[in-house]
Amino acid sequence: MYTDNHNHTKHFSSDAKMTAQQLIDTCKGLNMYGVAVTEHYEGDYPHDIGAPQIFDLDSYFETGKTWKEYAGDFPVRMGIELGWQKHLPAFYDEMVSKYPFDVVILSNHLFRGKDPYFFRDGYEQDMVSVYTQYIEEMAQMAEDCSNYDIIGHYDYINRYGPYEDPQIRYAHCPEAFDRLFKAIISKGKALEINTRSIDKMRKRGFDSAYSMPDPGILSRYYEMGGRIIAMGSDSHDNDTLCIHFDETARYLASFGFTENSYFVGRTRHGEPLIPNV
Ligand SMILES: [Zn+2]
Ligand SMILES: [Zn+2]
Q: Is the pTM of this model over 0.90?
């Protein structure tokens, strides 16, 4: 089994349902190598959704000590998922440097200033221009920030795309993807393969093959020199931990990738995608 690089608990992420104890117990039961807790931190989040989208970092690390005690030998990594906006890179780079994070995910949860999870009006434009603009913003995010390890869910925008054929593809916006990959590769960061996105597509009724990340995206990343990938289930509930990981690992290996990355104290490590090969 693998390390799951992207998860939320109810203690610090308002949209999560699982407790840290449930997370740890489930991971142990799944015989996983380790798990990262990456709570949401959305500086200047534009929506009032009745719960704070930031949390106190001192109490997070204090609480994390009790999780590690509970977990015993099982590795629990302390991470964060930063919600990017154009004005936040300097703030985030400095904030992250002050705490002993294991892993930092950088994500873009907004399109045209609104989170598509709640507001779908951004999708009124045609699909290609929506996806192009979203990936351009991700490229800017990857370029402007420095203090992070993983670029989260490039496909967040198509989880909610109300189109007939919503899967985001390299062919939709090749220049934007090239710009994003260039930033990730030159900075030695990881491209996340978010299996919650795969799961969401399946729950919407798309078939197994269609729901996987676009081959054009993965082959172009590899062709440009991208080798660093990190699988994350983005679980908010303990029934999706490591979801579709075995299948996704085999799929990634078919493009030439060999490792799932994980991070300890901001240092990257790799575990084989296909064990014993
Ligand atoms: Zn996210
Ligand atoms: Zn997340």
A: yes
